[in-house]
């Protein structure tokens, strides 16, 4: 992998009211990465909470690449400003940005990886692409499935995971954190082969 600091951003909305929402699963994944690295996110002037860590384990058992894990303190539709400010502060290039977010178009429980492409109506991604002037950053897409019946998608993502989903949530968050580590340590192609292969 190329040298340089990585920035891993988990998207969500701030505050206890939103903490358990499907829309906040990206932030949950960053919390899991913080736990894995025994680090604590602290307030950053870029309107975010962030921590400097080593992601995953490099070949030979050495600590993995240097990274900053972060959750914007802004609302989802204003994620671009904090992400751009963090990238500038830590001198991170777009090809070293990994955005972790909820994805309606992926079955609940699945994790998919890609670089670039559209935002699929996701306001957080739209804000980031607009602020950066590029869509060419890495995404770890955490599947939450489609809303049932005629429920509006906006209502669906702003609801907490159901009791059944909550039983599976630790596994989903863990898989997504594994995917982040794989992207950073092994590269996108190898990570895709691992996470996109039929189980």
Automatic annotation (TrEMBL):
The keyword Cytoplasm applies. One of its GO terms (molecular function) is tRNA binding. It is an enzyme of class 3 (hydrolase). Belongs to the PTH family. One of its GO terms (biological process) is rescue of stalled ribosome. The record marks 13 as: Discriminates between blocked and unblocked aminoacyl-tRNA. It comes from Knoellia koreensis. It comes from the Bacteria. It catalyses: an N-acyl-L-alpha-aminoacyl-tRNA + H2O = an N-acyl-L-amino acid + a tRNA + H(+). This is Peptidyl-tRNA hydrolase. Monomer. SUPFAM superfamilies: Peptidyl-tRNA hydrolase-like. Keywords: Cytoplasm, Hydrolase, RNA-binding, tRNA-binding. The record marks 102 as: Stabilizes the basic form of H active site to accept a proton. Its main location: cytoplasm. Its EC number is 3.1.1.29.
């Amino acid at each position: 992998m190329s040298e340089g600091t990585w920035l891993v951003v988990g998207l969500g909305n701030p505050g206890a009211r939103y903490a358990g929402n499907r829309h906040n699963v990206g932030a949950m994944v960053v919390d899991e990465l913080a736990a894995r690295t025994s680090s604590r996110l602290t307030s950053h002037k870029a309107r975010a909470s962030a921590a400097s860590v080593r992601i995953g384990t490099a070949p030979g058992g050495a600590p993995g690449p240097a990274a900053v894990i972060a959750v914007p303190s802004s609302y989802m539709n204003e994620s671009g400003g904090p992400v751009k400010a963090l990238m500038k502060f830590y001198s991170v290039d777009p090809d070293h940005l990994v955005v972790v977010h909820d994805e309606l178009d992926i079955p609940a429980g699945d994790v998919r990886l890609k670089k670039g492409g559209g935002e699929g109506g996701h306001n957080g991604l739209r804000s980031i692409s607009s602020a950066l002037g590029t869509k060419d950053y890495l995404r770890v897409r955490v599947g939450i499935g489609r809303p049932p019946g005629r429920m509006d998608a906006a209502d669906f993502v702003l609801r907490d995971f159901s009791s059944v989903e909550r039983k599976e949530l630790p596994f989903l968050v863990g898989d997504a954190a594994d995917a982040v580590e794989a992207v950073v340590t092994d590269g996108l192609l190898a990570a895709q082969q691992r996470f996109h292969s039929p189980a």
